[in-house]
Amino acid sequence: MRGDLSGLPPTLVQVGTRDGLLGQAARFSRAARRSGADVVLDVWDGLWHTWQYHRDLPEADQALAEAAAFVRATLRSEH
């Protein structure tokens, strides 16, 4: 967050409200935006660090689907 964040590609940050890194994710997103990066900060209520790996959670499937859609949209916009 203190380094040069200019030139970052479009970035999706998914974080839960119970994640110990929530504050850092928000600060990183703000710093990257100030550097001109296109950043989406996606905060998920009640979820913890790496909830996306818990395949028994519907939110995990939704988060991974949204991440895949973000990547597809980013790749389409580059062409």
Strand content: 15-25%
The counted number of beta strands is: 2
Tally of discrete structural domains: 1
Radius of gyration: 13 Å
Q: Return the average pLDDT rounded to an integer.
A: 95
In spatial order, strands of the major sheet run 1-2
Sketch the topology as an H/E string, one letter per element: EHEH
Please report the number of helical segments. Answer: 2
N→C terminal distance: 29 Å
Stretches with pLDDT under 50, minimum 5 residues: none
- Which structural category do the helix and sheet elements fall into? alpha+beta
Helix content: 40-55%
Biggest sheet features: 2 strands, parallel
What spatial form do the alpha-carbon principal axes imply?
A: flat
Question: Could you characterize the architecture of this molecule?
Answer:
- There is one protein chain.
- The chain is α+β, with helices and mostly antiparallel strands and 79 residues long.
- It has one domain (11-78).
- It has two helices and two strands, in the order E-H-E-H.
- A two-stranded parallel ribbon has the order 1-2.
- Strand 1, helix 1 and strand 2 form a beta-alpha-beta unit.
- The longest helix has 21 residues, at 58-78.
Compile the SSE list and pairings:
Elements: E1 11-16, H1 22-34, E2 39-44, H2 58-78
Parallel strand pairs: 1-2
Please provide a brief summary of the model.
By secondary structure, the protein is of the alpha+beta class. Helix content is 43%, strand content 15%. It has one domain.
Keyphrases for this structure?
79 residues, alpha+beta
